Amino acid sequence: MFAPTLPLAAATREARFLPFCVGCGMRLPELRAHALACPHCGVELVRADGTRASASPLTKWLHAAASAVVPGAGQALNGQLGRGLFVLLTCWLVVPWIWGIADAWRTAQRAALAPLPR
Please, what's the b/e burial string for 52-89 (b: 16 or more CB within 10 A of its CB; e: otherwise)? Predict the structure, then answer.
């Protein structure tokens, strides 16, 4: 359940978590990088960089790549069907297609940094 103390070099490579739980306020022990929830109350953890523990760092890149291959696909993956349809219908202009790639990346990044629901 809890990770043993790692050497300093290995510990700096792993994602670090805040020392206190946002939900219950308990001090957290040293957790593994893939830990998703507080062992005391089960609230989702937040990494030290502000991203949710359940958010993959590759999500934003995958959404941008999907939007580059199929215009509007990144917006659809982000749950923005109207924007995705707009980009798909106007991609022949090229500028909306490029904007769609950047927008898919930016929206996925914003979703990873979104505050936890209470």
Answer: bbebeeebbeebbbbbbeebbbbbbbbebeebbebbbe
Q: What is the SS3 assignment for 4-64?
A: CCCCHHHHHHCCCECCECCCCCCECCCCCCCCCECCCCCCECEECCCCECCCCCCHHHHHH
Q: What tokens were used for 89?
A: 């219908």
d(CA 116, CA 118) in angstroms, rounded, equals 6
Summarize pLDDT for 46-85 with one digit per residue, the tens.
766 667 766 677 888 898 999 999 999 999 988 999 999 9
pTM attached to this predicted model? 0.57
Determine whether 1 is exposed, middle or buried from the number of CB atoms within 10 Å of its CB (0-12, 13-18, 19+): exposed
Task: Give residue for tokens 């659809």.
Answer: 76
CA 41, chain centre distance (Å): 22
Closest Cα to residue 84, out of 67, 61, 108?
Answer: 67
Q: Compute the distance between CA of residue 40 and CA of residue 24 in angstroms, rounded to an integer.
A: 8
